[in-house]
Each structure stands twice: as C-alpha cells, then as structure tokens.
Amino acid sequence: MISHESSFKIIIKCKNNEIAQIIAKSLEPENQHVDNNTTISMQVKDCKLIVQLESSSSVSTIRNTIDDIISTINTVESVYKSVKS
C-alpha cells in the first residue's frame, strides 16, 4: 500500500465576516466526524473562510470529504439567502 499525505486549502470569499462565521459554525459538526487520518481546521479572516484539510486517507475518501464540505457551504448559502430575502 502506498502511503501519502495530502493537503488542501479551500478559500471561500464571503460578503462579510458574519456569513463566513455562519458557514464555519455550520461545518463544525461535520468536521468532527472525519476519519482518524484526516484533520480539518478553519479560520475566518478578511471576509474569507479558510478551510485547511490534511489527510493520509484514500483519494476517494478525501474527495468525499471535500464534496461534503462544499455541499454544506452551498446549503448554508441557500438558507442564508432565503432568510435574508
């Protein structure tokens, strides 16, 4: 088996820090349930949510984790827009 370490940074530019914080809080529960080979950290800075993912899991597992993060971000964005309308 080939051992590897992958690192990804996802930067989401938001209209303001409030939205970035809402997205970060929405991702927290999901990020606590990643496998033992993966760590996810987040920070909000200058109206951006920065998500850092490091993992030695399989590529398909990493892809699924990133897909889950993006799906959650899309859901939060949709809910936020409908609430603010």
What is the secondary structure topology, with strand pairs?
Layout: E1 6-13, H1 17-31, E2 38-45, E3 48-55, H2 59-84
Antiparallel strand pairs: 1-3, 2-3
Task: Describe the 3D structure.
The structure is a single chain. The chain is an alpha+beta fold and 85 residues long. It has one domain (6-84): TATA-Binding Protein (2-Layer Sandwich), CATH 3.30.310.50. It has helices at residues 17-31, 59-84; strands at residues 6-13, 38-45, 48-55. The protein has a three-stranded antiparallel beta sheet. The chain is elongated, with a radius of gyration of 14 Å. The model has no long low-confidence stretch (mean pLDDT 89).
Quick overview:
This protein has 85 residues and is of the alpha+beta class.
Q: How helix-rich are the residues, as a percent range?
A: 40-55%
Number of folding domains? Answer: 1
Task: Extract low-pLDDT stretches.
Answer: none
Second CATH tier, the architecture? 2-Layer Sandwich
- Termini Cα gap: 51 Å
Query: Assembly state here?
Result: single chain
* Helix/sheet category: alpha+beta
**Beta-strand content estimate:** 25-35%
**What is the strand tally?**
3
Radius of gyration, taken over Cα atoms and rounded to an integer in Å = 14 Å
Number of helices: 2
Give the overall silhouette. elongated
CATH homologous superfamily identity? Alpha-D-phosphohexomutase, C-terminal domain
Report mean pLDDT, rounded to a whole number. Answer: 89
Task: Just give the CATH class.
Answer: Alpha Beta
Determine the CATH topology: TATA-Binding Protein
Helix and strand run = EHEEH
Taking strands numbered 1, 2, ... along the chain, how are they ordered across the largest sheet? 1-3-2
Main sheet: strands, sense, barrel: 3 strands, antiparallel
